[in-house]
Amino acid sequence: MKPETIDAEGLRLRPFRPADVPDVTAGCADPLTQRFLDGLPSPYTEADARRWVAEGAPAAFAGGGAAYAVADPATDRLLGTVGLSNPVPQRNQAEIGYWVAPSARGRGVAGAATRALAGRAFADGFARLELLAHVENSISQRVALAAGFRPEGVRRGAAPVRGGGRRDLTVWVRLADDPPGPYPRPLPDLPDGRLTDGVVVLRPLEPADADQMYRLHTGPDVAASRVPPGVPTREEIDRRGLAAASQWLTGTAASMTILDAESDAVAGSCALIYDQPATGQAMLGYSLFPDWRGRGYAGRTVRLLARWGFDRVGLARIWAGTLPENVASRRVLERAGFRYEGQLRGRLPGGSGTRADSTVYALLPGDLTR
């Protein structure tokens, strides 16, 4: 690409200038930028910024990519950067990336800059652009959605971590002939960030819930109902919390924490797993701490989750499965309107190489009880 100015959506994409050095230094030294851009020097100094402006950015253009300063057109002040890296000419493909200065975050700068550069890249002959983000970087994944990129999966261990180790990267892609506008989300955000009936509150699962989730899922009865049964490691629970926002954004699963509305105490967890988007079907599941069982919290959770699934997600059918001997859970489902559909022999892995049967219950929109 040629290093020419692009004006779009109230932003100006232009080549870097020596006057940008202080803002580049501050932006690249910011903790959030450092957290998700492991390739940056740490600490990031003014000398690093000078090298980038004088050598790094021009080299990106010379190599078939791009490195633009994103500026306020009224003041020419740097708001961030957006660029194309790792071009593959034989595939007409490149990766698009960005960072935004702390003072400019929350204003749609990243999404607007990404759309502007993507549009120019496609006009210049690129056919496919990839946007890669750390699994836990839900902010960047929201930018991808807003810029019309679609989720394609996860690259395991694709990113080296500063100081050692590797991280997974989510892959978001936009093609030259994709329709304009944001990519529609299969699982929308919760209204006001939560669901509640005044007694129970459901909110998105967060990494900070890891201690409580580890305690919940290592309980003997909850561990016995896992698939396969067994006690999870703390690492598994931590990964689940870090990936929860990404799974929600990609439309895979909506994992939530169950709270008591009065005390804000954690009562358990639940999830709506969108297992068959093509047919409008999802699976519902939940677990409660022993102290919160027998108080109607499970039924309230099931109704809140199902109502959101039907009314906001647009589901046509929700199903749930239990072990045949789990009479309490079966009663919860039946009271909420789920209908028994049968028992699947040997459907689930059991302990010591055995197999366990599973009952199947299903709920249609008109079945849900109050």
Automatic annotation (TrEMBL):
<dbReference type="Pfam" id="PF13302">
    <property type="entry name" value="Acetyltransf_3"/>
</dbReference>
<feature type="domain" description="N-acetyltransferase">
    <location>
        <begin position="200"/>
        <end position="367"/>
    </location>
</feature>
<dbReference type="InterPro" id="IPR051908">
    <property type="entry name" value="Ribosomal_N-acetyltransferase"/>
</dbReference>
<protein>
    <submittedName>
        <fullName>GNAT N-acetyltransferase</fullName>
    </submittedName>
</protein>
<dbReference type="InterPro" id="IPR000182">
    <property type="entry name" value="GNAT_dom"/>
</dbReference>
<keyword id="KW-0808">Transferase</keyword>
<dbReference type="GO" id="GO:0008999">
    <property type="term" value="F:protein-N-terminal-alanine acetyltransferase activity"/>
</dbReference>
<dbReference type="GO" id="GO:1990189">
    <property type="term" value="F:protein N-terminal-serine acetyltransferase activity"/>
</dbReference>
<feature type="domain" description="N-acetyltransferase">
    <location>
        <begin position="11"/>
        <end position="178"/>
    </location>
</feature>
<dbReference type="GO" id="GO:0005737">
    <property type="term" value="C:cytoplasm"/>
</dbReference>
<dbReference type="InterPro" id="IPR016181">
    <property type="entry name" value="Acyl_CoA_acyltransferase"/>
</dbReference>
